[in-house]
Design a protein that fits this description.
- The protein is 88% helix and 0% strand.
- The protein is mostly helical.
- It has one domain: Up-down Bundle (ABC transporter transmembrane region fold), CATH 1.20.1560.10.
- The longest helix is centred in the C-terminal third of the chain and has 51 residues.
- It is elongated, with a radius of gyration of 26 Å.
Length: 318
């Protein structure tokens, strides 16, 4: 019996199983980032216009408008997140069903224990992150990239020179994030291969071979070492990203405060910049997390598709 094979890329597989849902997630993501930018202008107007003029009615209406925008944004984002989770779980279900339907009759008897161990590992642990990425694979960069562009565009409109200074603070992350992530991915790939060997060893041991204890213990210790290496790299990346963000806030407060004292900038503009940097930091961090997850999932998917397609070819040749 000819078994189905997986597409060469994880994006190809996700598009195959959830194309119309991805198309529905896109406009919801656009609506969220459009709603997220408007409160910055309301904050500036409350500080500059309403308070300076002493109009309590204007302050009240602007505050109500701010709350309404926040409520609407939160509601749309709630629906988006639930929809994403549903798409992700449907993809996990589809992938697990496909892996579970694999026929082992075409696999040589001496390789069957290892193949069964690989199948167990794919069903229990490897399908989940691949499917979980499906809900955010297209909508997340659209949402977070749109937020970054809209907020930086607004800050550039307010004060171009300060926007450039703040942008320069974030640029180093474009260099060190991919470098650190590549190191994480190498360790993650080695961890998956080692865990597959552990699963295969468990299957062999269940068949009566009790001489695998030492090698299994070595593999498990190797997984521990790989995990600790991943944690060190991950937390170092988070530390550097937080450092860059707080440096940007320091620039905004220092330069903006100097301009405000000189009468060359309104206080409300400084407040909007600091708030805007907070709004930039969150989507930037989410975009970096998406990139990290994408590279890790792409590596996992390559290993899964390689194993699934190999089993399918072995069955076809049998």
């Amino acid at each position: 019996m000819k078994q189905a094979t997986l597409p060469p890329t994880v994006f190809g597989y996700i598009w195959r199983v959830s194309a119309r849902h991805q198309a529905a997630l896109a406009p919801m993501s656009v609506l969220v980032f459009l709603l997220s930018t408007a409160p910055l202008e309301l904050q500036r107007r409350i500080v500059n216009d309403a308070i300076a003029k002493g109009s309590t009615q204007a302050i009240l209406w602007l505050a109500v408008g701010y709350a309404g925008l926040a409520l609407t944004e939160g509601a749309v984002k709630l629906c988006l997140n639930i929809y994403r989770a549903w798409v992700g779980e449907r993809t996990v279900l589809s992938l697990r069903r496909m892996i579970g339907s694999l026929d082992m009759t075409g696999v040589r008897a001496e390789d069957r224990a290892n193949a069964q161990g690989v199948e167990i590992s794919m069903v229990l642990s490897e399908a989940e992150p691949i499917g979980g990425f499906a809900g955010a694979c297209f909508s997340e960069p659209l949402l977070q990239g749109g937020l970054l562009l809209s907020v930086f565009g607004y800050l550039t409109f307010l004060e171009p020179s300060m926007a450039l200074l703040c942008l320069a603070v974030f640029l180093p992350q474009v260099v060190f994030v991919p470098m650190i992530q590549r190191s994480i991915n190498r360790r993650a790939a080695e961890r998956i291969r080692t865990l597959r060997q552990v699963s295969g060893g468990i299957v062999e041991a269940s068949g009566g071979d009790a001489a695998l204890g030492a090698s299994q213990d070595g593999r498990i210790h190797h997984v521990f070492s790989l995990n600790m290496g991943i944690y060190r790299l991950k937390f170092t990346m988070n530390f550097l990203m937080n450092l860059m963000h707080h440096s940007g806030v320091a620039v905004a407060l220092g330069v903006g405060g100097w301009y405000a004292v000189k009468g060359q900038m309104e206080v409300g503009t400084v407040v909007a910049f600091v708030s805007g940097l907070g709004k930039v930091n969150d989507p930037w961090g989410d975009l970096v997390n998406w990139f990290r997850e994408m590279t890790a999932v792409r590596m996992r998917y390559c290993l899964v598709s390689e194993a699934v397609n190999r089993l399918a070819q072995a069955d076809a040749a049998a």
